[in-house]
């Protein structure tokens, strides 16, 4: 089992950048595929990005491709989400998620992941 804690959210202006972090407990972080999701008020939770156990494979939602970058540091048990050129449409609670499954075609489903953090609020104002 793994415990996930997100940090780095906040209130920014449109066009600004933020970096989210997700710290994982335990000694087997490199066994987990990781994902970032977000949920805006009144909307379903949606996929943002995913990264393989080694960090060699990444996937992105079309809405963030070219602006967001997911990365991980297995020595620090942490996964990151660098968010550039933020817009009001990016405003949401951002969640990190983990699974022991290798990344597959189902990486964008919430049900693919077994563990979730508590979320961190990101607000981009116009």
The helix content is: under 10%
Beta percentage is over 45%
Given helix and strand content, the structural type is: mainly beta
Number of strands: 11
Outline: globular
**Spans of 5+ residues with little confidence (pLDDT < 50)?**
none
Alpha carbon gyration radius: 13 Å
Distance between the termini: 40 Å
H/E element sequence:
EEEEEEEEEEE
Q: What's the pLDDT, averaged over the residues?
A: 97
State the helix count.
Answer: 0
Compact overview of the structure:
With 126 residues, the chain is mainly β. It is built from no helices and eleven strands. Helix content is 0%, strand content 47%.
Helix-strand blueprint:
Layout: E1 4-7, E2 10-13, E3 18-24, E4 33-39, E5 46-51, E6 58-60, E7 68-73, E8 78-83, E9 92-99, E10 115-116, E11 120-125
Parallel strand pairs: 2-11
Antiparallel strand pairs: 1-3, 3-8, 4-5, 4-9, 5-6, 7-8, 9-10, 9-11
